[in-house]
């Protein structure tokens, strides 16, 4: 049986902390619905790193630091570490689906989602839908 937890992708983490992002309101509302339903949000160390880098490039250091603050200050966000085993599994997935436009970080997310039996992602990335998951934000 799938868990009720939801994976937060880079696009959602960034949209949530940057009020100027076009998906900020949708991300804020989706997070509120998830938390009000008693669900947890899962993020990987790779997704956090990617979100911090994106936030710094687009919004500067203050926005990047909000990503860390969000993760550190919320008891409802659980960090999953990729580690050696998941890295190797993601590398195999990446090779198998090399004809797709998945980033390696996408592949690590897919591996974690399958392992934890997560079916929903807080994301705007259509690759999650293509890989068989349900996106909870408007997909680009």
What does this structure look like?
With about 140 residues, this protein is of the alpha/beta class. The protein has one domain: Rossmann fold, CATH 3.40.50.1010. Helices cover about 60% and strands about 10% of the residues. It contains 7 helices and 5 strands, in the order E-H-H-E-H-H-E-H-H-E-H-E. The chain has a 5-stranded parallel beta sheet with strand order 3-2-1-4-5, sandwiched between helices. Helix 1 packs across helix 2, helix 1 packs across helix 3 and helix 5 crosses helix 6. The longest helix is centred in the middle third of the chain and has 15 residues. It is globular, with a radius of gyration of 14 Å. The model has no long low-confidence stretch (mean pLDDT about 95).
Structure keywords:
alpha/beta; Rossmann fold; globular; 7 helices
Brief synopsis:
The chain has helices at residues 10-17, 24-36, 45-59, 61-73, 83-96, 104-116, 126-130, and strands at 6-8, 41-44, 77-80, 120-122, 134-135. With 140 residues, the chain is an alpha/beta fold.
